[in-house]
């Protein structure tokens, strides 16, 4: 089963979308089949991977109001291992349209049930609010990644987010974990950035990622070309930072990535032998990665 990570912080402009796009692209570049889901009506994530949200016919909006399945909305991107479910401005209305639906917080979780077998990672870009769209993401997710901008008032509002996570755990998704807190837009020249980093580490301890995303103009330019930064300037510091983040997340999630043992393998000395080996040579074959028989159990 793939790992579903929601990128959330109700504060605007902290780097959620930049992180969703570039983390997903980096995981895909390491040949992990990855799905990027845009549930923000601003649709910046969709345009950031080259999709024109104005012409999108099948988006998260149609999925959430129950018109189509999630599979029907999946589109390819320039990266072979990365697919996307784009958003549309209509999604603004979805929160209202969903109000009368039974189990309205679980719509995305239910829609994702089949798709999560096909991917190693599913990354959800949330809007800057703690409304029904973000609640759907937190209910569908295994974990939440919280980007925090290395700026004044970095921790402001995080109490509210942590409280929402607690409520989601109590009522909707007991398994929800914190994947980590990510420092973004870090300026190595500023003492302020270091002070914020210290404060965030004091508050969140080892839940802060080792990787820090620095302020890098390439990261802000890439979306206007509809490309993740690694396809825009692979040598940039932004590309390197997000690749490091992807590696850190892969490292932390080995248990999600190892295929479940087959019955035969499980009976061999009780050792868990991967059902369809993930050697570098095997992983160069997209088809073999997409069909982990052991993981569909
Ligand atoms: N590390 C970075 N270096 C330079 N610019 C960045 C970096 N991260 C994000 N930005 C820029 O900062 C702005 C806000 O980033 P982004 O859109 O990712 O935030 P967001 O949290 O998704 O915003 P919103 O809350 O509106 O959805 C964008 O213009 C983006 O290009
Ligand atoms: Mg955004």
From TrEMBL:
<protein>
    <submittedName>
        <fullName>Chromosome partitioning protein</fullName>
    </submittedName>
</protein>
<dbReference type="Pfam" id="PF13614">
    <property type="entry name" value="AAA_31"/>
</dbReference>
<feature type="domain" description="AAA">
    <location>
        <begin position="3"/>
        <end position="178"/>
    </location>
</feature>
<feature type="compositionally biased region" description="Polar residues">
    <location>
        <begin position="278"/>
        <end position="290"/>
    </location>
</feature>
<dbReference type="InterPro" id="IPR025669">
    <property type="entry name" value="AAA_dom"/>
</dbReference>
<feature type="region of interest" description="Disordered">
    <location>
        <begin position="262"/>
        <end position="297"/>
    </location>
</feature>
<dbReference type="InterPro" id="IPR027417">
    <property type="entry name" value="P-loop_NTPase"/>
</dbReference>
<dbReference type="InterPro" id="IPR050678">
    <property type="entry name" value="DNA_Partitioning_ATPase"/>
</dbReference>
């Amino acid at each position: 089963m793939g790992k579903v990570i929601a990128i959330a912080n109700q504060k605007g402009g902290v780097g959620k979308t930049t992180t969703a796009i570039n983390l997903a692209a980096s995981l895909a570049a390491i040949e992990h089949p990855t799905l990027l889901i845009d549930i923000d009506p601003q649709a910046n994530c969709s345009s950031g991977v080259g999709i024109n949200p104005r012409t999108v016919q099948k988006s998260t909006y149609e999925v959430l109001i129950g018109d189509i399945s999630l599979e029907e909305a999946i589109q390819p991107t320039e990266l072979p291992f990365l697919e996307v479910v784009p958003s549309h401005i209509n999604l603004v209305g979805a929160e209202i349209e969903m109000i009368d639906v039974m189990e309205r917080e679980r719509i995305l979780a239910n829609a994702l049930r089949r798709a999560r077998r096909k991917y190693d990672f599913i990354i959800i870009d949330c809007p800057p609010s703690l409304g029904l769209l973000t609640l759907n993401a937190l209910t569908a997710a295994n974990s939440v990644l919280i980007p925090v901008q290395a700026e004044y008032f970095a921790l402001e509002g995080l109490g509210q987010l942590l409280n929402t996570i607690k409520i989601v755990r109590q009522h909707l998704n007991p398994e929800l974990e914190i994947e980590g807190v990510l420092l973004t837009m870090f300026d190595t020249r500023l003492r302020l950035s270091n002070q914020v980093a210290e404060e965030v580490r004091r508050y969140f301890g080892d839940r802060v990622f080792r990787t820090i995303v620095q302020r890098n103009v390439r990261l802000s330019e890439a979306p206007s070309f509809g490309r993740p930064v690694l396809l825009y300037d692979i040598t940039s510091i932004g590309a390197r930072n997000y690749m490091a983040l992807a590696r850190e997340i892969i490292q932390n999630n080995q248990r999600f990535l190892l295929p479940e043992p087959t019955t035969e393998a499980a009976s061999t000395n009780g050792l868990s032998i991967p059902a369809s080996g993930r050697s570098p040579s095997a992983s160069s074959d997209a088809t073999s990665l997409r069909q982990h028989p052991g993981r569909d159990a």
